[in-house]
């Protein structure tokens, strides 16, 4: 399809829709497409694709450019290569690997606070942390995991491009664009934020490495995702928001799972995902004070259902196990950030 034809299709689809309606439809349909592709092909960690695509679909920054998307996938591929090299060279030397992992974590968080894409940082973190962990038990599986991570990153970008093509944002007035800019943080504040996030994630990395908890990698993934959002857990009171959001998502996942038990069809999973996306998206893109909770809830729903339906074994038991694991991760991140904020208080300007 030519560029002009794609523009005509996008204009026809978006005709008569206001900006909010376009964002809701893009959010729901994009997530549904990601779930459909992930569940149909089922590569390693495919269930992460719908979850991580939400960061692009809900972002006010708009459609990522082609070069930015190619660079994104390339950076993830390089991170996977680094993870494989580290697995072969450093895992046998704990006194070398553990400080190296901590240093890599700090640099990733530092890059985030210096304007790099949080979604890119999450993919890099997953690649660098999970590949060595899986390599401890099976180097062959670590190679499959690396290919799966790159495949997921590429699939995410293709689906995001398609969703933004079907439902583009209307041109923003210059005044709105000016208001969207945020002031630059001081270097000391960036260092503090990066150090706090590192202190939250690093003990978990060490524990997984020492005890080889490969059966609970979802906990590490969730902690990595939440650590990119320290604003939600800057103190114990603010920490109620992510807990509530994930409770809503867990309850929704139980409802969706029970519906899938009654109708265990691929098509029903896709329709259910679309309906859930529309319901949560309509609340996320609203003026409600609790709007952000519904984005967290939908992410939790996709993570639980995707990780359960894409794996073998007793799905029913795994649904509740996944919910417990996610809640453990959320509570840990909230408590850890809350304690660190009190031990290392933020300086007032």
Radius of gyration: 20 Å
Helix content: over 70%
- Please tally the helical runs, counting DSSP H or I stretches of 4 or more residues: 14
Largest sheet composition: none
Low-confidence stretches: 1-13, 174-181
Distance between the termini: 53 Å
What portion of residues belong to β-strands? under 5%
Topology summary:
Blueprint: H1 3-14, H2 19-41, H3 48-57, H4 66-89, H5 94-113, H6 118-135, H7 139-166, H8 174-180, H9 187-211, H10 217-227, H11 240-262, H12 266-284, H13 291-309, H14 315-343
Helix pairs in contact: 2-3, 2-7, 2-12, 3-7, 3-13, 4-6, 4-7, 5-6, 5-9, 6-7, 6-10, 9-10, 9-14, 10-14, 11-13, 11-14, 12-13, 13-14
3D structure, described in words:
The protein is mostly helical and 349 residues long. The chain has one domain (17-169, 184-343). Helices cover 77% and strands 0% of the residues. The protein is built from 14 helices and no strands. The longest helix has 29 residues, at 315-343. It is globular. The N and C termini lie far apart (53 Å). The relative contact order is 0.14. Mean pLDDT is 84; it is low at 1-13 and 174-181.
Question: What tags apply to this protein structure?
Answer:
349 residues; mainly alpha; globular; disordered N terminus
